[in-house]
Write a structure and sequence with these properties.
The protein has helices at about 1-25, 35-50, 70-80, 80-100, 100-120, 130-150, 155-195, 205-225, 240-245, 245-265, 290-305, 335-350, and strands at about 55, 65, 230-235, 270-275, 280-285, 305-310, 315, 320-325, 355. It is of the alpha+beta class. Strands 4-5-3-8-9 form a 5-stranded mixed beta sheet, with helices on both faces.
């Protein structure tokens, strides 16, 4: 008996581990697609079926196992549809494999009652831990009533209930905490990945993500024969803003500028904060003339925008922008970074608050 229960626990842990590989990058909620919900329900049902194949026989036709825990997992993490699908799979298999008998008929009815009950319980507004505890209690109640119908009040009835309850409590606790820890690890991993590629202040791509995007996008532009423009943006006299108003105001300006950048460009363009007051925009399939138009629109938008830094004070800033385009201003994408930086330097050197398109160094006097 102990070996069968241990094997049941191992099967459940294996199922959860495999399922985690497929859903770890998705939000655990009832917003899965219809197809994924059906797959989750069938998978949970198949696990319940496997568990039945390693059941403990109380009598020749009465078995106990942990087949209802996969149904509970489907209810907790998948919602109504996966729960019902899993219940149908388990209930129908109970009759088809073990034959038509009173215990089998009771088994299929219990599977549906358990599935519906789990769905209702898991729909209440409460923590997953509370839902799990209530569901396990509900399972014990339904199981005890079903077993009473089949066995009546007898020593074997009481012994079976005690064994089932003790085994189920132990295994269900292990399964729940294992599943929850996997979810926490997945969420932590997702958070770390996000922090590794996003600027903590503005939410834009950071310089690491910019480098990665630039390499992949420039290679794509070469393969497809498309134009690629790069804008380097710098806030004029940003240091004086920090010195005059403090770094918290400077942060407000940076976040406000980030919002403007996102609002101006197209959804597929890559906007990054490269560090300090320096920003960049990768404009995909964009000629130099179009890049200049976007840059000028951005410059004017910033120039006329009032950054609210307190109830009584609105701050105005300006930006300088350097523009370089492949193949309009250079025949190599590798030169875009240096060329855009050179153009930005020229914009700042010649008065700031302007857009400069890169030209050969000989043109700069």
């Amino acid at each position: 008996m102990v070996s069968e229960f241990f094997l049941n626990a191992c099967i459940l842990i294996t199922f959860i581990s495999i399922a985690n590989l497929y859903v770890k990058n998705k939000d655990i909620s009832n917003k899965f697609s219809l197809t994924l919900k059906i797959i989750a329900g069938v998978s949970s049902g198949l696990v319940g079926i496997i568990l039945m194949l390693y059941s403990v026989y109380v009598t020749s036709n009465i078995i106990i196992d942990f087949r209802y825990i996969p149904i509970l997992l489907a209810a907790i993490y998948g919602g109504f549809l996966p729960t019902i699908v899993a219940s149908i799979c388990i209930g129908v298999f109970r009759v088809l494999y073990f034959g038509v008998s009173q215990p089998s008929i009771v088994g299929i009815v219990v599977a549906f009652i358990i599935g519906i009950g789990f769905s209702i319980i898991c729909n209440i507004k409460s923590s997953r831990k509370s839902k799990w505890i209530i569901s396990i209690t509900y399972l014990f109640l339904v199981f005890s009533i079903a077993l009473l119908i089949v066995l009546g009040i007898s020593i074997i009835f009481f012994r079976t209930v005690v064994i089932y309850c003790i085994g189920n409590i132990g295994v269900s606790c292990i399964v729940f905490f294992y599943a929850e820890n996997l979810i926490k690890f997945a969420q932590l991993n997702k958070k770390l990945k996000h922090e590794a590629t996003k600027d903590f202040l503005t939410g834009l791509n950071n310089v690491r993500h910019f480098d990665k995007s630039f390499n992949s996008i420039s290679q794509l532009a070469l393969r497809k024969g498309e134009k690629l423009s790069l804008l380097f943006i710098d806030i004029d006299f940003f240091k004086s803003i920090n010195d005059t108003y403090g770094h918290s105001v400077g942060d407000t300006v940076l976040k406000g500028l980030a919002d403007i950048l996102i609002d101006i460009v197209r959804v597929f363009d890559v906007v990054s904060r490269n560090g300090g007051e320096e920003f960049s925009i990768l404009l995909l399939d964009c000629s130099s003339s179009h890049a200049i138009e976007i840059a000028e629109r951005l410059r004017r938008k910033v120039e006329t925008h009032k950054f609210n830094i307190s109830d009584k004070v609105n701050l105005s800033i300006t930006i300088s922008i350097g523009v370089a385009t492949y193949p309009d201003t250079t025949n190599k994408t590798d030169y875009l970074l240096e060329d855009a930086d050179t153009a930005l330097y020229e914009a700042k050197r010649t008065g700031r608050n302007k857009v400069v398109l890169y030209k050969d160094a000989d043109h700069y006097n």
